[in-house]
């Protein structure tokens, strides 16, 4: 029976790929899920596994050919095919001395041992790639099942990758700092002991072809080298037999850019000023983490896209502080969590959002999407940067449920354990710069949301109450909003409702 090997789904909007490398040739035995060939798209490299065990039959799409999604690549004949593929074995033995019996035995012993691929796990909705931040093991190390091998960093969270089985880490395919696609291969684990780890690595390097060897480079790599003005000798190929892949050219271009002299900086949008040599020697250059790059990009996108405006007010926090002092011990005893200010602010914002729903809406093309729920984002500062976990359906939660959820999310944020689901879908955000001592600021929108409330430091100030000057604990409030959706009247009304609810929390009970 013949089984077809077809081009897999290549990703959103990607309709074709180039066959870069065949790892097997007709007549070779293949195991189920063993990698047969590698495809190159404009964005990623895709490996095609064998759908079943058997013998590779005809190869329909040769290296260098362009194929569409679901196109036929090859066929596999089911069965062991022991009599069909003697050539590879004969070739291997011809290279070895005739009296080298132990090495031949070692090959036979290695054959039954299955290599297990370590793959990039699912990274979350809309997240397609990650950066390898740390390897906890190196090639040749023994690993236990579920032992942590490496840590990946995405735009939003860090993801630890456990070992899928016990064995030896025989090969690392993505070094620290490299970008990997969701579902891509990170490493290989062998279950047959440490002896196979070294030969695999040692076997890769001699396979690299010298520049004079007749090795066909990937078509996309040829194009990239031509565009970058690089010769083949300037690029180190990591593909089969030293074949140069598109990623190899990109690495060579990046290395050349890093090594380029300072005048190169003149091509950037904001060139760095010349630094005296004695000062440069005392500087430290550190690559931005993916999280920090994403924060920078999203904040700048918010400024460039939204018609962002900020309106201010202030609230007398006397009543909230009085309630906290009266009930904080009972609250902690009954609910097991401290009564903070955040639950009051969440409740006050929910109350105001019901009256001014456009602050809880977002623009989608030429439509405005009004949300009949409140998923409250709560900005949390972590050692890695600002993250915004989401309290879902905050409009249906009690004070203690809000405090419990915020406490839980805060711990996860600081430990880097937030899941993607816990940071997606927010409809409005609260940011508390007051915990750092901020007296006044203009928060930046968290796209695609249309509003964000900035809390600030509580500070005693003289205010006029009933014609008398008194000292009250005051807080400045700032609402940044997208003026494309929210008019000035709506923004001011929202902030006044928040102020009223904080200055007289009984209004929340009465829904006033």
Automatic annotation (TrEMBL):
Highest taxon listed in the record's lineage: Bacteria
The segment(s) forming the Peripheral subunit-binding (PSBD) domain are: 216-253
Gene Ontology molecular function: dihydrolipoyllysine-residue succinyltransferase activity
Query: Which reactions fall under this protein's catalytic activity?
Result: N(6)-[(R)-dihydrolipoyl]-L-lysyl-[protein] + succinyl-CoA = N(6)-[(R)-S(8)-succinyldihydrolipoyl]-L-lysyl-[protein] + CoA
This protein's cofactor list reads:
(R)-lipoate
A GO BP term here is: L-lysine catabolic process to acetyl-CoA via saccharopine
Every copy of the Lipoyl-binding domain together lies at: 2-77, 115-190
Q: Which SUPFAM superfamilies match?
A: CoA-dependent acyltransferases, Peripheral subunit-binding domain of 2-oxo acid dehydrogenase complex, Single hybrid motif
Q: Where is the composition biased (Acidic residues)?
A: 100-111
Function, as annotated, reads:
E2 component of the 2-oxoglutarate dehydrogenase (OGDH) complex which catalyzes the second step in the conversion of 2-oxoglutarate to succinyl-CoA and CO(2).
Q: What is this protein called?
A: Dihydrolipoyllysine-residue succinyltransferase component of 2-oxoglutarate dehydrogenase complex
């Amino acid at each position: 029976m013949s089984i077809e090997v077809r081009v897999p789904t290549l990703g959103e909007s990607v309709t074709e790929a180039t066959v870069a490398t065949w790892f097997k040739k007709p007549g070779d035995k293949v195991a189920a899920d063993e990698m047969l060939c590698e495809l190159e798209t404009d964005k990623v490299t895709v490996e095609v596994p064998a759908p079943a065990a058997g013998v590779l039959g005809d190869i329909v799409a040769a290296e260098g050919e362009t194929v569409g999604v679901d196109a036929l690549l090859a066929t596999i004949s089911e069965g062991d095919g022991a009599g069909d593929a003697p050539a590879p074995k004969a070739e291997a033995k011809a290279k070895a001395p005739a009296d080298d019996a132990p090495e031949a035995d070692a090959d036979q012993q290695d054959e039954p041992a299955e290599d297990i691929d370590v793959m990039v796990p699912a990274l979350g909705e809309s997240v397609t790639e990650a950066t390898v931040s740390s390897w906890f093991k190196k090639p040749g190390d023994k690993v236990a099942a579920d032992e942590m091998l490496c840590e990946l960093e995405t735009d939003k969270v860090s993801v630890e990758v456990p070992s899928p089985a016990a064995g030896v880490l025989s090969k690392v395919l993505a070094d620290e700092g490299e970008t990997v696609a969701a579902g891509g291969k990170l490493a290989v684990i062998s279950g047959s002991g440490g002896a196979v780890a070294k030969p695999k690595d040692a076997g890769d390097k001699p396979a690299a072809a010298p520049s004079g060897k007749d090795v066909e480079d990937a078509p996309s790599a040829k194009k990239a080298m031509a565009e970058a003005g690089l010769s083949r000798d300037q690029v180190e190929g990591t593909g089969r037999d030293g074949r140069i892949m598109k990623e190899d050219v990109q690495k060579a271009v990046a290395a050349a850019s890093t090594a380029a002299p300072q005048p190169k900086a003149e091509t950037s949008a904001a060139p760095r000023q010349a630094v005296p040599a004695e000062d440069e020697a005392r500087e430290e250059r550190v690559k931005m983490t993916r999280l920090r790059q994403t924060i920078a990009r999203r904040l700048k996108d918010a400024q460039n896209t939204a018609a962002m405006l900020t309106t201010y007010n202030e609230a007398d926090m006397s009543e909230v502080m009085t309630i906290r002092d009266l009930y904080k011990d009972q609250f902690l005893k009954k609910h097991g969590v401290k009564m903070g200010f955040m639950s009051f602010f969440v409740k006050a914002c929910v109350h105001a959002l019901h009256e001014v729903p456009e602050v809880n809406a977002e623009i989608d093309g030429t439509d405005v999407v009004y949300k009949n729920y409140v998923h409250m984002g709560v900005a949390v500062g972590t050692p890695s940067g600002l993250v915004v976990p989401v309290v879902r359906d905050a409009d249906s939660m009690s004070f203690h449920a809000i405090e419990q959820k915020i406490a839980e999310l805060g711990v996860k944020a600081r430990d880097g354990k937030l899941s993607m689901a816990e940071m997606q879908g927010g409809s409005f955000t609260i940011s508390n710069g007051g915990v750092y001592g901020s007296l006044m600021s203009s928060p930046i929108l968290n796209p695609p949301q249309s509003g964000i409330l900035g809390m600030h430091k509580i500070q005693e100030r003289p205010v006029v109450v009933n014609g008398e000057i008194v000292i009250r604990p005051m807080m400045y409030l700032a609402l940044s909003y997208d003026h494309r959706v929210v008019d000035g009247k709506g923004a001011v009304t929202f902030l006044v409702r928040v102020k009223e609810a904080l200055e007289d929390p009984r209004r929340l009970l009465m829904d006033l």
